[in-house]
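Project outcomes to date are best conveyed with an example. Our students and postdoctoral researchers have been running inverse folding experiments weekly, and each run begins with a structure described purely in tokens. The record below, which covers 190 residues, was selected by the lab manager from last quarter's runs and is presented without edits.
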């Protein structure tokens, strides 16, 4: 019986090590971690949140604070998470598209009314709830690219109009010079 218990504990330890390794791997690919208090959410609601986050390339991890503490140990860019590791936490780990992920979470939260943002960490900095909200208000990568493309197209259009205007301006200037010259030579002839 004692032997069976130790085997079970060994498996549990292996499972914990797998969870920590998976957390480390996910954190390595993430640029932003948001900690939410998920107290009161059902398994179905957490599954729903995960589905809403998936299109943005983000994941929602529900894990013990102790395991997250082990996963971030020695990683200076994630160590500020220690200040948020209390209570029932879920971790939104976001690779790139902060705006879409935060908006997806906010839409979920608006419907469920059961979660709240404790804070986040990005590039080694602890973020408040308002910082996280501000990140969510930033334009998405696609919107930024569209704005840049629009600006480039606007400059290109102005440049093209300007270049097309040069021959016309040059022609008018030459014509005016010729007319002035003709007017001047007529005066001399008279």
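After processing, the design step wrote out the following sequence:
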């Amino acid at each position: 019986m004692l032997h069976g218990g130790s085997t079970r504990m060994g498996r549990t330890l292996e499972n914990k090590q797998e969870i920590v390794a998976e957390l480390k791997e996910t954190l390595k690919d993430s640029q932003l971690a948001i900690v939410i208090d998920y107290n009161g959410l059902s398994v179905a609601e957490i599954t729903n949140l995960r589905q809403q986050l998936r299109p943005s390339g983000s994941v929602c991890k529900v894990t013990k604070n102790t395991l997250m503490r082990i996963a971030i140990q020695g990683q200076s860019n994630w160590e500020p998470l220690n200040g948020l590791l209390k209570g029932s936490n879920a971790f939104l780990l976001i690779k790139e598209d902060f705006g879409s992920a935060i908006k997806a979470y906010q839409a979920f939260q608006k419907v469920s009314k059961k979660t709240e943002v404790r804070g986040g960490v990005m590039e080694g900095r602890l973020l408040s709830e308002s910082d996280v909200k501000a990140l969510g208000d930033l334009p998405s990568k696609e919107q930024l690219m569209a704005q840049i493309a629009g600006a480039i197209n606007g400059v290109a259009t102005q440049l093209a109009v300007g270049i097309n205007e040069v021959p016309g301006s040059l022609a008018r200037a030459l014509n005016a010079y010729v007319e002035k010259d003709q007017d001047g030579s007529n005066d001399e002839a008279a």
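DSSP finds six helices and five strands in the chain. The helical segments are 2-29, 43-53, 65-72, 98-112, 129-137, 141-189. The training component of this project remains on track.
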